[in-house]
Queue: 4 jobs
Job 1
Amino acid sequence: MTATTAVHASGLVKAFGAKGAPTVRAVDGIDLEIRRGEIYGVLGPNGAGKTTTLRMLATLLPIDAGSAEIFGVDVRREPHRIRQLVGVTGQYASVDENLTGTENLVLFARLLGQSTPQARRTAADLLERFGLEEAADRQIQNFSGGMRRRLDLAASLIARPPLIFLDEPTTGLDPRTRGQMWETIRELVAQGATILLTTQYLDEADQLADRIAVIDRGRKVAEGTPDQLKQSVGSSTLHLRVADRAEASRAAGIVERVLGEAPVLTPEAGGLHVALTDANQTADVLIALREGVVDITTASVRQPTLDEVFLTLTGHHAEDGSEAASTTEEVA
Amino acid sequence: MTLLTDTPVATAQVAAADRPLPARPSLRATFDQTLAMAWRATKKMRRNPEQFFDVTIQPVLFTAMFAYIFGGAISGSVASYLPLIIPGILAQTALTACMATGIQMREDMDKGVFDRFKSLPIARIAPLAGPMLADLVRYGTAATITIGVGLAMGYRPGGGVLGVLAGWALTIVAGWSLSWIFAWLGTVARSAQAVQGIGMMIMFPLTFLSNAFVPMETLPGWLEAFVRINPVSHVVTAVRDLMNDGAVTGEVGWALVGCIAVVLIFAPLAVRSYSRKM
């Protein structure tokens, strides 16, 4: 723990289990070291333990084993101090359905010690900044998902917390609202906040995070900058489909000659795909195929998906772990 | 809708991470937070007026029903039964209203907004005490309507205006105190339905095995023994003493002691199980 550290956690464990049933270790020994002023992404499929980790750090769940400090304050021993340092925006918007946008923000501001007139100003201010003025006097139950999420984030910012937890802030949002959310998150960092963000989308972690931890079945399986992570699976993948299935293996030979790596074949569809270290290699492959007179029906270059990162890092697909563990996320 | 990028976010600067922070909320802050939570509860009441059914329609129905059905049998006439039954109905309505407090609190706690309450640096008692404070409105409504119906039916309390006011106030205090039991139930029960089920089990014996509707002397000895120690009996007797005789008797003292004891036991239990569960 140094002056540049925002979050320091070691060996975090959370086990869930009904009486009689075997306990499930939703979080199984996670270490985190988050620096001040960075966006730290926690990437993983549903049920990997992302939310549980976040909730333990936010004092919403007791820590079963391990220790955590936020800005040097012990999470277990001083929950009230931690709550003054952390703003939490949940996966499901934690705002009051029965109240209007204004009433929600006024309530939270008053709970945080503002006088009623002050709270009204804060509410009006935040509603304006988040483009929610027209929703000021409407009950939340009539809000769209994106509006709720924005109101929820606005509520998390009332106390101007130096550390903000965002639990899947853009899951279920349309692309435009997602882009806006990303901008807001970048602004918060520009103003000096530190952000811990969970996401299922590699793309989101890539866009926002300075560093990423990949979590699987309660354990951290990799950590690094987005570039480092992507390099571990190749920066992108070339997908090809040959017109004549019989030609697939000949095409694979050509690809291997150009790239020095054997592509993966999906013979039934006449498809093959191979990791690229550089997108420019696409042209070399296509030229070689044309010279070799192999007809292709489609060719595409894709960014590695979360599943591919997972497959590379853990040896299993992201969905494998989700069924057993998704129940624990519900418990959380 | 404006783009979020058009304007700087309201948090022009974030709060310093290394400022000194209080380790626990002050008493003053706890009070303010409780008031804010009570404000939220009153807003909800205004939007869901059906929450008031149990404290408006039920007292009217029960007062009229019990007085006309049992009046002749128990006291010879409806008019002479009223001084007995009105304080009884007051206690019964207060208990029913308590149960609703626990059920609503349980329902509320399952909502997403409680996640935020838990993550805020606020006193753990505020999310419980706030709605309890707002529920004073419900007990007040129930007591006022019951007394009003009684007066309309010909009840002429001997304690005068002051005696009636004192009985009214004692009903509210008793309702509020007992509601901490149901608040605690709300924090330990698995669902709102469970609170309702357990609540009924507590409420029925407590109200019917008391002197709320019949004179104790008419009961068999073993039952009379229970009725005599039933706290509801003490509250009912205290309210009768205040409203019918304008007398501040020992029963009033016992009723108040009972109320304080209930709060002292169940408020900490409720707060503890609330903060632990969450």
Note: Residues 1-12 of chain B have pLDDT under 50 and may be disordered.
Job 2
Amino acid sequence: MFEVLLQQTQAAAPAIEPSAAAALALGLAAFGAGYAERGIGAAAMGAIAEDDSLFVNGLILTVLPETLVILALVGFFLI
Amino acid sequence: MSTAGGSNPEYVTARVKARKSALYGDEEYRKLIRMGPAEIARFMEESDYEDEINALGSRHSGVDLIEYALNRNLAKQFDDLLRWADGRLYDLIARYLRKFDAWNVKTVIRGLYSGADRDAVSDDLIRAGEFDDEFLDRLLDAPSIEEVVERLSGTIFGPGLDDAYADYEDTDVLVPLENAIDRTYYSHLLEGLVVDEATQQYRELLEAEIDFRNARNALRLAQTGADIDPAEYFIKGGSLFSASELATLAKNRDELVSKIRESKYGDDLSDALDELESAESLIRFERALDVALLKYTDQLGHVFPLSITPIASYILAKEREVDNIRAIARGREAGLPEEQIEQELVIL
């Protein structure tokens, strides 16, 4: 009796709720984007320090990994 | 400085690549070859060397001005590298830049040997290595070569120089001392180099540098016909020669050439080797060695962009640039024809 009850509750409640999983995915995506930007940002700063005219290019390249977060955000709204 | 204390190759290589693209190319050299010393100085003032030319312009003129400006700029560039780098990258760059410590010690010893005055020697130093200004000044103040060796006893050069000094006293030529310095430098360069794929490539580059230097030394000895045992001046760490092999090869130039031709450097050096076989000119062979090394590092820099190799490639390229400008300025001063100066240049 008790075992059956246990099995039923396990089936009914997944370990992570869909919305929680989406939040987790978003967080991980943002973490990945941050890590990617670390390297790009450092290189961009180096290039800008040598040549001011590279500011725009550096800025664009630095924020490119932000697209990762935006895609994850799409997933978040689909759930 | 990153607070994490990690290595920051992204930042350093980005800056280094920007600087590297600003180095003089074919076209600039072609212009420079046609200029006199004063014009060269003005040309340099309009490019990267502005600060140095301005700072030294009131005290020196002509070729001296160019020479000192070049040395100072070189030191500044390499100090910058050390300032930018952190962590493991700093360690690797500092190791490589000890080359200038070796150079400075050699300059001081040569200055004392030839009896040059202190200021002249001081102007020739490249203050880019690990030794700080204070220590270099102490070396400059030393009254004799023995005293220089004494003052270096606490550094990495200490033990090697102590042994070489006895040789120097017997023979009264500088070769033993200079070789002791070179050997110390190279043995420290490879010591405890941690191996991952990029560092492995870097290690190969250093080995190539050592091999080329050994080959060059052996050829020079063979050329002069001096009765010196090449094995004594052999630098350890290369992959091509062993000490005993080099000793026998140095006596026979043809065999040495064919040995290099069969090695892994054969393809890169085939033009240089043809040159060496046909002509007696050692200078052109040495230039060809420099070009081959430069090409090799350049290519490595593209294979592993986030490692020390692009930085090493920049260091070598910058050194070559300084050598080239100096050769042009000196050549023009001595009134050499343009073609001959062109032969002296190392251009990729």
Note: Residues 18-50 of chain A form the longest helix (33 residues).
Job 3
Amino acid sequence: MVIIINSIIELLTTKIPLGNWVENLVNFLINNFSGPLNNFSSFIEFIVNGIESILAFPHPLVLIAIFAVAAWKLKGKNMAIFVALGLSLVLNLGMWEPLVITLASIITSVLIALFIGIPIGIIKAHNKVVDLITRPILDFMQTIPPFVYLIPALMFFGLGNVSGVIATVVFAIAPPIRLTYLGIKQVDEELEEAGHAFGANWWQILLKIELPGAMPSIMMGINQCIMLSLSMVVIAAMIGAGGLGKPVLRSLNVVDIGLGFEAGLGVVIIAMVLDRMFGRDS
Amino acid sequence: MKIKAKNLYKIFNGNDQEEIELLKDGMSKDDILGKTGATVGINNASFEVEEGEIFVIMGLSGSGKSTLLRCINRLVEPTSGSVEVDGTDVMDLNKEELREFRKEKFGMVFQHFALFPYRTVLENAEFGLEIEGVDKETRKEKAMTALKQVGLEGYEDQMPDQLSGGMQQRVGLARALAVDTDILLMDEPFSALDPLIKKDMQDKLLELYEHIDKTIVFITHDLDEALKLGDRIAIMKDGEIVQVGNHEEILTNAENDYVAEFVQDVNRSRVLTAEDIMDKPEAVLYKQDGLRTALHKMRRNELGSIFVLGENREYRGIVTIEDVVESINKDKENLDDIIKEVPLAEPDESVNDLFSKIADIDTPLPVLDKNNKLKGVIVKTHVVANLASEKV
């Protein structure tokens, strides 16, 4: 009896080497998949750099003008004025270059998150097994502190923008998946029935009924994805991502209140511009 | 025979065969739910729909009528039984064949319209054609024709939520008409509309039905609607078809208590009398009129027969157009020889009693007062329409 109790106590007090397992797994992946990881890394780097050079190519004022016109077309005159003033302020504060880098990483992260997230959301809405499997994974990704996966991201992809992008995608991919899923689930069953009654196949139901019906929800997912990506700007800077996060981090280290505020304001402005321009109709 | 359904069963959440056996042993729907947890949707339903008729399936909510309708195009998969449409057993089709079959055979109209809120009225009407892969021009043309048919010309660029309920259902109807299928499946299409609009839509459907060559299966929980629209009516209860018949059969020969109760509940015929439902005689003949006058009056009023009155408007009998024409061809001039006797009705006779009288004759039924004067005419086709409408 005593022996049994003792062994139970021993079992309970012996630490499960969960940390070791994860470390081993990461090491295993790095050792055995360095080739594909490198390829993936350079692919993402290529996209980020590509977008960055496109954005950096025209004179800042030209880019501001382009943004303002786009805002005009999308949301009207007031929005155009706001965009022009906000971006000009960033330019004036000398934050243009970091802003372009941030924008490039955000666009890359959001594109990857949507490219993966929306199809997963669609599959999740049609397949119970996928739904059950993805649910805890999404909970995990949404609640685990981002700092925890900064380390593996760093180990896989090294210091720099790519790690930042990957960490951002992990952090921001849940809303597009969840809201695509939700949007499709909420499509009126009678509408789908109407589709079937007229002989529509799976693709026609998806493209002509489910996705258009889910569009408001999907747009919300895209908006959330952008916002979450922006909230990762500073954290991503900790693993070497460039952009507006960098001066914020530096100001923290040297207690430079002014610099911190200026860079922070840059993040706020770009966040408001993107938020207002994509989704959320007032 | 356009549609022929035989021994259809639909069991929800069950072992299927087990429940079907229990049903065959005479167990009730409720007992089966208690014993096995399965819900009986349809219990051994067989019916036939003839080409070009309006077949109404009527029942209270939960009676399985919508499920039965969906078994025809297999939106609901029957547990067992067969459904033949134009000789093809729908149950034998694989998924791809079924999709093609639906495109080719069925248009469907839904209770809550099922319009796509992000599509304009025209785009909604085009939906079925789009699924069929019809090119843009033809699609638009056909959809516009359908919208015109339902009286929605000029609304094609509106969004559905800008339209009233009645107009939305017209869009639903146009969508089903645009694909130009033989069969129209209508699942309580007018139940969600308010009474006035509902009557309007029924009239619209009947008017359309005159001009299109379609077989319609129509679901309703409203006996008035069933009587107004249906050539034949099937009454359902607890997943079973308890009676199929035309108006008179349903109203006069209820096959069991359920139908009788149903009919009594909704039907005003028990308190109505001949006087309430008769029409004023549009045209009559007088004894001295000749054959030519008779023919002329009948032609002008589009009548197949006409009543003959004597002195002081006293009722004498009826002559039919066939007899008149025959007499004229034989160069006769007198009406007397061809005046026929038909059953008579009194003004305070109940409508229920009238049904048996009308059922047997081809001519209108004269309503006479005590002095043998013609007070009114009861025309067979009007009786049911009068009962169905709120006219009284």
Note: Chain B has two domains: 3-266, 274-388.
Job 4
Amino acid sequence: MASESPPPSIARFQPLASCVDVSFWHTLSQKKLEEFKLSTESVPIVGTFGPAPPVVKSSASVPARISLGPNAFKPEELLQGGEYPFWGQLFNANTVEEFKAFNKKRMIDDEGKALWKDIESGACTEDPSRLNRFLLISYANLKTHRYYYWFAFPALNPAKVLTVEKPMQPLSGRFSPEVIGQIFKQHARKADSHFVVEVPSEKSARAREGAVKLLDLKAFSRMPPSARKGPSSPIYLFAFADPATLKEYPGWPLRNYLMYLRYCFPDLDVIEVCIVRLRDGPAKSAAAAAAAAAAAAAAGGATNYGEYTTTGWEPNAKGRLGARLVDLKSVFDPKTLARTSA
Amino acid sequence: MSASHTIHSMFKGVAEYWMPVLQSSNFKKKGVLTPEEFVAAGDQLVYKCRTWQWASGKENMVKPYLPKDKQFLVTKNVPSLKRASDYALNDAKEEIVENDDDDGEGGWVSTHVKEKSDKKDNRAKVEEVQEIDTFDDTGGEEEQGAENKTAVNGKETEDDADEEDEDDIPDMDDFEEDNLAEADPGMLLTDNIKEDGKDTTATKSDNKNSGQSSPLTNTEGKIIRVSEPEDNIEKTRTYDISITYDKYYRTPRIFLFGYDKNRQPLSPKQIMEDISADHARKTVTVDPHPHLEVPHASIHPCRHAPVMLRICERMEEENMRTLLKAKVAEAKKQGKDTPKAESLKLTKEEAERVAIRIEQYLFLFLKFISSVIPTIEYDYTF
């Protein structure tokens, strides 16, 4: 168990699992016929994650899922309440050979570079959801209704291994229920993927009122470092919405977030993170409080991309690095359909 | 798809086009909803349960009588841990409740079918159970297979794609790329993700001995397998459930789409395994989703309105009874042994409290649906 392990230990993150709706493949087929035709240009798409389903039994849990639905091709469309975006690029091949020939290593490397450029240029400060991104390569066989696909969730991986100073702990051990309630209430209103939580220090008079504030990263980055570090200055926690489902480990999005924070706030020795997990279920407030956790990570970050590698191709169902296949013959083929439902 | 069902679907499509949108509330009399009431009830469901969301569906399939961004309700990835056969006992109990009706006729399961062809029904049930049993066997094998995966590589894909054309099943091993594998100390290894080319069992037992007690020995890219949490991830079937508004029957309608643990879509036959035997062959059909086009399994809504009406009435009765009991108890406290009828009369406020509000409709609807599909774990909210 994480709580027993002596610090510092290597930071580990729960990988994301792709989760594609059949309606996405359906839309892809239509677009392939009507719009893309033979083009293999990348197409912007968007995946989402929302609140995890409640724990139905304590021994079972679901993977951290990123879903692609029928609206994945309309990134400009507003997301439904309570959902967070993952911005993606779709590369759809025309033949299975083309699909195999994609240079996966270069693709993920390019994506890592693009991400780093966004971090350096401040684009991620403007819109932190840019830290959450993915690649999808696919080949849709419209005759057999078989879809080959492979996801990558690029994560910047520093040469120096990330360590955890303090294992993840429920936020309830540190703040009062009112403070946690405030965080969740305000977050529900704003629904940012990444933000900063400001909790007044105990000495300050405001603490009694429980004045918790959520700042966006833009506002936080404009604050002079002295205002963040004074003896009576509030406690600042970097927060993000986490699709992960494991109690002891943070989710994949924290990797890029930590690299971003390391680059933008080099004066911080240790980055303390507040992990906001939305889980549906009875007794919402209590469950929510238990789900929020704080972990501190000393990021062994770097200041130029040369020190990073980018990883993140999703393993297949057998756990190896490889493409996946979904066979939708039973769903799309009218003949099979007529036979099975007769 | 049976011919009669096809004809009925066509008829319904035409009729739906001509039928006026229901304007006035008939929820108390017939158990039906207007589109506005459907939206109100849906808003409440979304507000109370964050896993339910409004969706807009495909652009060319927008129904004009519903707001563009509130075409139907959807919840995704709902785990289904067991098959319907595991719930057989519960089903029996629920059935009694369902049929406990004055006229004995209006039950969701049309009762006369049961009485007349009891034997036939039983036989059908036995068949059902056998079918499920065989499935469970293969399921168990598969799961075992997943555990000692080193032994059965490639078998799983075959199992999954065992549709008609065996001739051109692609070998997904060809799509694996070893050159991509590089040390990623940040990746938490879950049960199905393993390091390439290493003996999994050895890594696992290694870890059990050392645990995380010496994590720093592994810094040079060697990956430790964390033994505790990954065991908690149980891969199960999942369902995407949506509730649409059926203009013809003027009730909500449930559509299901299932995936197996490897995210392959379930065939209609497999979905039937998750539906209680009494309903599986009778009220569940495969129809195109009205907002997504893709065929989904659906519970036919022809009996939804009367059933919902009865559930609402029973609910109100129940509320009334508890309220009256409380009132009688109060009256007794005050020393009156036989409270007069007038003192038991409900005030306007009380009557409002007893009455089922339109916002509760979808919660009750889900409750009813959960008796039809006992295997899907979403009835945690009400």
Note: The CA atoms of residues 151 and 336 of chain A lie 29 Å apart.
